Amino acid sequence: MSVYDQIGSNKWKTIFYIGLFLIFIIGLGWLFAYIYNAPIILILAVVIAVGQAMISYFWGDRVALSLSHAVAIKKSDNPELYRIVENLAITAGIPSPKIYIIPDQSPNAFATGRDPKHASIAVTAGLIDVLDRQELEGVISHELSHIGNRDSLLMVVIVVLVGVVAIVSDLFFRIGFWGGFGDNDNRGSNGLMLIIGLIIAILAPISATLIQLAISRKREFMADANGALLTRYPEGLANALRKISADRHPLRHASNATSLLYITDPTKKRSWLAGLFDTHPPVEERIKALEAMAK
């Protein structure tokens, strides 16, 4: 798949997932409103669905940066990092993104923003301390590739929407458990709502995981490859991945919901079961692919 195909695919995927989210939340609201004869539930569902869809698209990057506790910096705060980002952005043919620092010693980074004109890159303090210039260039080029490919838009939309689906599912579960709104003389309705609520509560996190896994792991391989082409030094990114993966400390403010944003899994899950649901391909495979490019 070419870069242009990837960009087009990510745009359509973004539209698809936002549409799926709207259908799910509004449909769930209609079901509860119908059973409890309470139109207010449907109105609430519509407001939540439309509001969160807009937030995920227009302000999802701010949500991601806020959740990570990232702090915006000026050029005077870290001139070298700024020069690296600006020079690589020129090479990539995209506007230079805003730069944020995450005050955490676990080395990692992510890119966010709905398009290259509204993009940001966040790197941890630990990443700057651990990597040399060539390795840092490799990581920055990887993140710039995500921005250019529109991966950053797709990923942040998924993060916000998956989180909202889980919250809303829990909300409707509580409505079902406590008896809902409005007048309702059907004695069996509460039991029915409890069953539906339990099913939703069980399926919601599973659905969230499946949606995250639907964001193909190939996006990381493509960003690695495109980033290596930007720097013309695949070994830089390969060495950076080695150092990042060697660190065993999880990122404090990262979670399973936001992990797919980062260059490697920030939660540092090591179990066999966790690996089955990892949104990132194994670091060893990524390094092997980069080393093959260097030959």
Instruction: Note the gap between the termini.
Output: 22 Å
| Helix and strand pattern | HHHEHEEEHHHHHHHH
CATH class type of the largest domain: Alpha Beta
Task: List low-confidence stretches.
Answer: none
Number of domains: 2
How would you sum up the global shape? elongated
Overall structural class, as computed from helix and strand content, comes to mainly alpha
CATH topology of the largest domain: Zincin-like
Mean pLDDT: 82
Radius of gyration: 21 Å
Number of strands: 4
Biggest pleated-sheet summary: 4 strands, mixed
CATH architecture name of the largest domain: 2-Layer Sandwich
Instruction: Name the CATH superfamily assignment of the largest domain.
Output: Metalloproteases ("zincins"), catalytic domain
Contiguous helical run count: 12
Question: Which features characterize this protein?
Answer:
Zincin-like; 4 strands; 2 domains; 12 helices; mainly alpha; 295 residues
Compact description:
With about 300 residues, the chain is mainly α.
Describe this structure in words.
- By secondary structure, this protein is mainly alpha-helical.
- The chain folds into 2 domains: 3-63 and 154-214, no CATH class; 68-152 and 217-294, Metalloproteases ("zincins"), catalytic domain (Zincin-like).
- It is 67% helix and 5% strand.
- The protein has 12 helices and 4 strands, in the order H-H-H-E-H-E-E-E-H-H-H-H-H-H-H-H.
- It has helices at residues 3-36, 39-58, 60-67, 79-92, 125-130, 133-149, 151-178, 189-214, 218-231, 234-246, 272-276, 283-294, and strands at 71-72, 98-102, 109-112, 120-124.
- The chain has a 4-stranded mixed sheet, with helices on both faces.
- A hairpin with a 7-residue loop joins strand 3 and strand 4.
- The chain is elongated.
- The model has no long low-confidence stretch (mean pLDDT 82).
